[in-house]
Design a protein that fits this description.
The chain is mostly beta strands and 323 residues long. It has two domains: 3-164, Sandwich (Jelly Rolls); 170-319, Jelly Rolls (Sandwich). The chain has two helices and 21 strands. It has helices at 109-114, 314-321; strands at 17-21, 45-46, 49-50, 55-56, 66-84, 95-101, 118-125, 131-135, 141-150, 154-155, 157-164, 174-176, 185-189, 213-214, 224-242, 253-259, 265-273, 279-283, 290-298, 302-303, 305-312. Strands 12, 13, 15, 16, 17, 18, 19 and 21 form an eight-stranded antiparallel beta sheet that branches. A hairpin with a 5-residue loop joins β16 and β17.
Length: 323
């Protein structure tokens, strides 16, 4: 599987952030975790020089290297990193490495400096103005990563792709088990011509019509659908089907079907009408614990968000955490 298709655990969309950087003279390290693709406006200068949408350190005149520490917005198992040097041409670092650590709570710079870091990417070459994708084989759970660049320079984005593994002790009894930030993911869908269905599982409200799932127009008698693997097996009670921003292209109707570990199916929501540009909340039919949910839309169209509220199997969550 292409690891870059997995969620970006470091993304600001999940609450990721840069907690410490030793140098950010030309451009702030906070840019590293922005979910948007980097941009560039040539010949745009401020008092420190060309403005970059990324992290850029000053030119080193002494031995050493620069680093930035990122708190993962969604702790989990890292499958690969993408060190993107987009638009950094004569000022990108020639090498980089990545270390990781699992720490509880909210450690500060002193605790992070004293932590027992694990190397997940050894010192590796970087190309300028492009993505540098490296797989990671360590399958332990991590909460923070440290990007080190040798010796200095600029990096636009750091993507840390992997599997989300939440701490069940920090989750309420009832939560959104279809949320990507807790480990839910789309495993199959009929069509994603205009928008990837994984966007429906992201935190917060959709910002616009492009921040959701949208299919092409159907010219047959079928319908479109998406299959979601829940963050954990769960007994579901409520569903939010949000068509915000989809006005002339919202689905006309929708259904929800639960699937358990034995591939038995259960109707959770019979066919209901949907309105354009509207958040809908529905009480779901009582059913046994399910592991997957299929959303069918009729006949096609766009959905901004899908939320499924229920009680998750805590034993399953603790087992994923290794407890």
């Amino acid at each position: 599987m292409d690891f870059s298709a997995l969620p970006d655990l470091a993304s600001r969309a999940f609450g990721g952030g840069v907690v410490h950087a030793n140098d950010e003279f030309f451009a702030a390290a906070d840019h590293l975790v922005l979910p948007e693709a980097p941009s560039h406006a040539p010949k745009t200068f401020d008092h420190k020089g060309q403005v970059y949408d990324g992290w850029e350190t000053r030119r080193r005149r002494t031995p050493g290297h620069d680093f930035a520490i990122v708190r993962l917005g969604a702790p989990g198992i890292v499958h690969g990193v993408d060190i993107d040097t987009a638009f950094f041409t004569g000022n990108f670092p020639p090498y980089a490495s990545v270390d990781a650590v699992e720490l509880s709570g909210y450690p500060g710079p002193e605790e992070l400096a004293a932590a027992d870091w694990v190397e997940i990417l050894p010192k590796s070459p970087l190309k300028g103005d492009g993505r540098n994708l490296y797989p990671v084989t360590d399958r332990r759970r991590f909460t923070h990563v440290r990007l080190t660049i040798f010796p200095d320079g600029g990096v636009a984005r750091l993507r840390v792709h992997g599997e989300v593994v939440p701490d069940p002790e920090l989750l309420p009894k009832v939560f959104d088990v279809a949320a990507a930030e807790y480990g839910a993911t789309v495993v199959d869908c009929s069509n994603k011509f205009y928008g990837n269905p994984q966007r429906m599982l992201m935190p917060g409200l959709a910002r616009n019509m492009g921040d959701g799932w949208e299919t092409s127009r159907r010219r047959d008698d079928g319908n479109d659908w998406v299959l979601v693997r829940l963050a954990a097996p769960a007994v579901l009670r409520f569903g939010d089907l949000d068509t915000s921003h989809f006005k002339g292209n919202a689905p006309g109707w929708a259904t929800l079907t639960g699937i358990d570990a034995r591939d038995r199916t259960f109707e959770l929501l019979p066919r209901v009408a949907l309105r354009p540009d509207t958040p809908h909340r529905f009480a779901l039919w009582k059913a046994p614990e399910v592991t997957h949910v299929r959303l069918d839309i009729f006949p096609d169209g766009g959905m901004a968000r899908l939320r499924l509220l229920g009680r998750a199997d805590r034993t399953f969550l603790r087992a994923r955490l290794g407890r």
